[in-house]
Every structure is written in C-alpha cells, then in structure tokens.
Amino acid sequence: MSDKVIITAALTGAVTPKEINPHIPLTPEEIAEDAVRCRAAGAAVVHIHMRDDAGLGTMNAEKFRKTAELIREKGSDVVINMTTSGDNRASDDERIAHIGALKPEMASYDAGSFNWMPAGVFMNSPQFLEKLGLLMKESGVKPEFEIFDSGMMGIVDYYTKKGVLNTPGHYQFCLGILGGMTATVENLVYLHDQLPAGSTWSAFGIGKDHLKIIYATLALGGHIRVGLEDNVYYAKGEPASNARLVERAARIVREFQKEPATPAEAREILGLKPL
Ligand code: ZN
Q1: Which residues, in sequence order, are CB contacts of 252 under 8 Å at separation 6+?
Q2: Ligand 1 centroid from CA 115, angstroms
Q3: pLDDT tens by residue, 139-191
Q4: Which of 17, 46, 115, 129 is most buried, by CB atoms within 10 Å?
C-alpha cells in the first residue's frame, strides 16, 4: 500500500459562491454528480459540505442524507467524509446531528479554534471537541483531524490520552488560511515531524499554494487533497472544476511513480470497514 496515494476531493466548502466559480456544486444532486466524476478521475474520498437555498453553509442533516444516498444510487463506492463545520450560525448540537444520525464513514474534526480572518472566530471549544470525539467513537465514524496550526496537534494528543479519540489517527494539514499556519514547505515538514507513529496524513494549501503543498506532501509520503473548497483556479485566471483538479492530482501522483488509491484501498489504509 505504500505506493498508493489517497486523493481527497473537497467539493464545495462553506462559503465560495457560484459567481466566483460556476463549477462549485451546491445542491445534493450537483454534489453527488461531482463526487461520481471525481471518483472516476482518481479520487478515493470526497469531503462534503451542504449549502442552503441562499448558497450559505448549512448543517442540514437531510441534505447530507440525500447527497450520500444519491452518491450510492449512482453506483459510486467513493469514501464519504462529511464536514462538522461550515455554518457559524449553527450550535454545537446542530453541527454534529448528522454524524449521529447518518454515521458517515469519515467526518472532519477541527482540532481547535482560531481567528479565520477576516470572517470570524472558527470556534471548536474543548467541550465541543470532547462531545464530537465521543460521538464519533460510539458511532464508528473515523475522524479526520483538521490541523490549521501546530498547537492543534497537542489537542488531538490530549483527547487521545483521555480515551476520547482512537489511534492511529488520520490528519489533514490545512495550510494557508490567514490566522492559521502559512502554506510553506517548512511548516509542512514541521507538522509532519509532530505526527504520532502509525498515523496517516494528508495535506493541502489553499489558493495559489495548492500545487506547492501537493508536491511537498508527495515528497514526504503523505496523501493529498484538492477541490474547489480550497482553490477555485486551475491556473492564474482560469477557473477550475473539481474533476480537472483531481485529474491533475492523479497525473502528478503517477508521474511520481505512485498510484491513486481506489476507495477500497483507501478504506484499508485508513482502517475503515469495507463498503
Ligand atoms: Zn471542509
């Protein structure tokens, strides 16, 4: 499995409107169609957010349910990773309702709070993280530890020692958000060096930094994430689509003499049950 690279496609995110890039999928049907396209292009995992009718991030459990059903109805075996953030109007309980109800294979676990500049405070209190961790544990949902800054590694360690989180963990280094760590190779190497033995990990840089972090992550032996949540341009001034970003990532992986993992292989690497 060491020559397999998991490509995660982060399809939608919580904020970017279609006016900026018309390819951003917003409805359950659009998101499911893009998930199928990205799987065909080489993605093994899709990370999904939902939007309300005004295009704003929502934690609406029915939309998550509908999207997951559509992905399976279309015959796709892609691993589904649901967000637990993306609507700053939602209460802690609203942020986790779909996790308990739907028990997705994976879900994001944002391991700390910080000023997401200039939008507001990205709030992930200790009380929320304990509740979310315990819910994921009892629901059999694999957390993806989203790490925006190095102190968050210690928060994951804390809840692991406390028995809230299981090992080995899967980490996603999210670099380049103003208020978190900048998307430099040095920062990526630093975070990589803090990983507990046996962990799996992935990384991305947002915007213009996404390619740099893809190449550096491959060099360090990690998995990669692409998609319109993180980056809306394929090249300067050229709007991307999710499928094109995945196609390019798969080409880069193959040029690196590795192979994009299939969903079944990703499940094995991540310790998930077969579908
Ligand atoms: Zn997300």
Answers
A1: 214, 215, 218
A2: 16
A3: 999 999 999 999 999 999 999 999 999 999 999 999 999 999 999 999 999 99
A4: 46
Ligand 1 centre to CA of 107 (Å) is 10
Both tokens of 189, joined, read 């190497």
Spatial separation of the C-alpha atoms in residues 144 and 108, rounded to whole Å:
5
From 3.40.50.720, 3.90.420.10, 3.20.20.70, 3.40.630.30, which CATH number describes the 4-270 domain? 3.20.20.70
Q: How far is the CA of 274 from the centre of ligand 1 (A)?
A: 24
Separation between Cα atoms, residue 270 and residue 200, nearest integer Å: 7
Query: DSSP for 41-95?
Result: HT-SEEEE-EE-TTS-EE--HHHHHHHHHHHHHTT--PEEEE-S-S-TTS-HHHH
Q: Please report the pLDDT score of residue 29 as a whole number.
A: 98
Q: Which helix (H) or strand (E) holds 192?
A: helix 185-193
Positions of the chain with pLDDT lower than 50, given as ranges: none
Q: What are phi and psi of 131, to 5 degrees?
A: -65, -45
| Domain ranges for the chain | 4-270
Cα separation, 65 vs 150, in Å, equals 33
How many A from CA of 114 to the centre of ligand 1?
Answer: 15
Q: State the distance from the centre of ligand 1 to the C-alpha of 110, rounded, in angstroms.
A: 9
In whole angstroms, give the CA distance from residue 268 to residue 18. Answer: 36
Single out the residue of 123, 112, 195 nearest to residue 149, CA to CA.
112
Beta carbons within 8 Å of 138's beta carbon, 6+ residues apart: none
- Quick: pLDDT tens for 236-254: 999 999 999 999 999 999 9
